[in-house]
Amino acid sequence: MTTNASNARIFGSDSDSIFLAPIGTAVPTTINGALDPAFEDVGWIHEDGITETFTGSKSEIRGYQGARVVRTRIDTPGTTIGFHALESKTQTKALRYDEKSSSTTAGIRTVTRGAGQKVQARVAVIDIYDADDVTVKERHVIERFEIVPDGNRVYTGTDIAGFPFLGEIIGDYTSYESTAATSLGAIWNVTISGTPTGGTYTLTVNGATTAAIAYNALAAAVASALNALSGVTGLSGITATGTGPIVVTFPSAVTLTANGASLTGGTTPDATVALP
Length: 276
Fold this sequence. Notes:
The chain is mainly beta. The protein has helices spanning 90-96, 219-227, 230-233; strands spanning 17-21, 40-41, 51-54, 57-62, 69-75, 79-85, 98-105, 108-114, 120-130, 133-149, 163-169, 174-177, 185-193, 198-205, 208-209, 213-214, 239-241, 246-254, 256-259, 263-264, 270-274. Strand 7 and strand 8 (108-114) form a beta hairpin. The longest helix is centred in the C-terminal third of the chain and has 9 residues, at 219-227. The model has no long low-confidence stretch (mean pLDDT 92).
């Protein structure tokens, strides 16, 4: 028997999040792609976590002879995501209640609510990380996520009056999962090998590639090239130190690759990156 405990996942890292945005909002196309500003984090989620449920049930079609099973099928197939939001804010209240109109004056939000409930459609991005190894990440991108209240909101002095929800995934959705080939880290070593005498190299962070970086660029120039991508990656404040290797520090875990194909001179020059 071959076992690997590192493949057994425990989620619930500090970075786990559910982001919601209006229908039609542009979605990320990579595991770490920056989110459109329209996305809002649901915030704190109940300790019960995020629950994925398959709604289908198996039925059997039997033949006349011996009443044996001839075929099986899945009735009412589908996938729901359940979560219990703990933060009382405009986003969660708009999902729970049928808000017909609202206004805010002098810090007071006034809402007209219908007594019934409505289905609220959103775009969703769900990011979850292994609690003990944030280089292991899953991202689920759902272009239509229909959300309904899923239980009571209890006002008590012994627990948080949260907001339980159940969302139905409509249509196909995209799921990304980091593997050894797409390692994540906040600190990376950049090494230029083979003693090049000219040319350039590039770095690609979360799918976005820098402008050409000189073969002999100092750490500050490397950091500048990466920070220049902030409008695409959403990452700023990237720093770099050292010479061999150059140690690059990002504000959060990222994927990073290097391309040294344009380096010249020396002996088989190349640019590589590695986690420390």
